[in-house]
Amino acid sequence: MKIESIKIKNFRSYKDETVIDFDNLTVLVGRNDIGKSTILEALDIFFNDGNGVIKMDKTDLNTQASRNGDNETVISACFSELPESIIIDSAVQTTLASEYMLNSNGFLEIVKKYKSGGKASVFIRAKHPTNAECKDLLLKKNAELKRVITGKGIECENQSINTIMRRSIWEHYADDLNLQDIEIDVSKEDAKKIWDKLSSYMPVYSLFQSDRKNSDGDSEVQDPLKEAVKQIINDEELQKTLASVAEIVETKLKEVSSRTLEKLREMDPAVANSLNPIIPTADKLKWADVFKAVSISGDEDIPINKRGSGVKRLVLLNFFRAEAERRAAEGDNTGIIYAIEEPETSQHSNNQRVLIKALKELAQVANTQILLTTHSSVIVKELNFENLRLIYEDEYGKHVLSVEPAVLQYPSLNEVNYAAYGEITEEYHNELYGFLVFQQWIDDYKIGRPQKPYQRILRNGSVRDESQEISTYIRHQIHHPENQNNTHFTMEELKQSIEDMRTYIRNRAEMEGIWEPISEDE
Known about the structure:
The chain is an alpha/beta fold. Helix content is 38%, strand content 19%. Among the domains are: 2-24 and 32-208, no CATH class; 419-512, no CATH class.
């Protein structure tokens, strides 16, 4: 399954419901502390139920919502690329569509609600029958479904299988189902069994944080073998083998406990009768803990998590590259989502380019999605516009929007920051000026613009008086800070020069039909 979107409400800085759409590769950009990492952590809570990196607690409630009496956090996700058939009762194949478990857009929408940071209640939001005669069938037990079949005289080929009985009832009322968007509580009754089965189809979600501690016990981002163990153990055939091992051990343990209690009963029957062996079932065993000592070590057995930040990130990079090749070669169809905070951390620009290239390749592998946060202009320039999601906040609340081409024809973090926050930087000025030079438009741009006196220092040390239009004047000062003979440009001049170049690029591009940037109002 592939995640299409997530909705977050009353979780940290997200007070009102906020929707984030995802692609195979999705990169969240925005200023510090705007809520990029919060999205990745909300997904970790959603997928891993507190058994991942992040644990939900009452401090995660939005403070304003909590003061207003709202103590429920809601995290929901929509999924596409659904299995063609599923087994939710017995061994009978069915589909999500025939069980009326899809929403109006044809997605599987799972809603998790957390009261005061507690355990999740799980719902499926779906376009579902609400006719009083045939609603809540997913919640009914076998005996209850039989009573409906018998009481209404409905034909049914097999009354021992819930799936077949539900189908027969819905077909009987096919002209009067009264389909409406509702939330089906799958935390209780027989529907919980359905959710247990359905959850096995969910993608594996792995969060790699940028600020992980560097203890010996640290896991995924420090040592990818620990993450590999999780994925290996999740293999369906291996799960069957492990279950067989668990059953053998369980049988042997029961024999030992039975013999022990039998001997105890000879001496003190009352005590013996009060004792019962507790043996966890196969699905409760933590197989990954058996291999928790796996590691990659360097010379003299120095563990990877004791190496420098840059080395640890390089190991992670090559783990991704190896995963991409393995999954492509094996045709692995287990869905997986890699979420990585600031992959540029501790990497120089060349490694950043190699890293984002590897992640883009991994995102093209079937059933694989990549989610990133970044502050790196190097990484952003390697992306397509459709990969970017801009997070910003105004007086109306928090917004997460797709990024569209505005002036430059490639994604630019400088341009995103300027458009979203009005951030005026020398880096953006350089980028715009360099773009004019690259397009060979710079000479035409200068024509007719106001000039400003400028003293150029020649190689022989002499000074030559010139005049430059303001954009070139600013560029010279940025690139030649050693020249102190000229009045430094003001922030107002920098802002005006940026606007002048943006306007020229937009008009020239539209005039020549190179591309059609959207206006700022759009």
